[in-house]
Amino acid sequence: MRTSRGKSNKQPKPEWATSVSDLRRRLNLSQTVFGQRVHASTMGVSRWERGVQEPPSHTYVELGNLAGDPQCWYFWRRAGLRAEVLTRVLPKLRNRIHQGPAVDFQTANAGSGGKKLRSPSLVALPLLKVAVATHGGKGYASTLLHDAPVETMIGAPKEWCPNPASTFCLRVAGNSMRPLICDGYILAVDTSQTNLPELNDKVVIAWNKDSGLIVSRLQHYDHTEVLQPENKESESIVLNNKNKWNILAKVLWWIAKAP
């Protein structure tokens, strides 16, 4: 539609739409491949770039991880990241962050010893508001972690997260993985690492319709796979067609508050 002077009254695209489009073009990706990187459909990417629909907060986090420094800060702001987002950030980051109503990053220089430090490369990981149980417990019922509610965000070094778009943080409920992993610990899990031959003797996240998500150690014995708890008083679980357990993720690392 045009005005009487022949000028279009079409509204300009929102800044966020242009930013998404610019990022995709900078990475030289099609809308389909770009969508796959952030777990969205081609149609979804098209709607974002046209300004028809804004990406949800969890997608903004993944866009920031995909963009890298310094553009990541723009997308993370759109996700509403606040002070609790980053667990440990070096002082140089203070100069990289533009002031804005939705951002309040905290910085710390513990252990720097007065040395000049290189700016860290960080990714923001969603801490999901779901529990992963240990043996004998009952964890989150769904396998769709991308759709789970988010409690907050955790900042982590990029080198700790080989696949940021597939990495989530989960809280542990239960003690059958003691003393390695205790009740209340936070796990970082990579859902792209599910190849069983590569996960022998690794700590993994498994799922069963009756028990939901659990954390355990995967062990191969000849032609048998077993979920083995660290606490020897808890029972192991043999993976077979009868109980139908699925391996959903590899545990990358974990954190906990000191007692």
Write the CATH architecture name of the domain at 121-255. Answer: Ribbon
Structural class: alpha+beta
CATH superfamily of the domain at 121-255: Umud Fragment, subunit A
Spatial strand sequence of the major β-sheet: 2-1-3-4-9-5-6-7-8
User: Count the helices. How many?
Assistant: 5
**Strand share of the residues?**
25-35%
Largest sheet, described in full?
A: 9 strands, mixed
Mean of all residue-level pLDDT scores: 80
Low-confidence stretches: 82-114
Rg: 21 Å
Question: The CATH topology of the domain at 121-255 is what?
Answer: Umud Fragment, subunit A
Q: What gap, in angstroms, lies between the N and C termini? A: 65 Å
Helix content: 10-25%
Q: How many beta-strand elements?
A: 9
Order of helices and strands: HHHHHEEEEEEEEE
Shape annotation: elongated
CATH classification class of the domain at 121-255: Mainly Beta
Overview features:
259 residues; alpha+beta; Umud Fragment, subunit A; 9-stranded mixed β-sheet; 5 helices
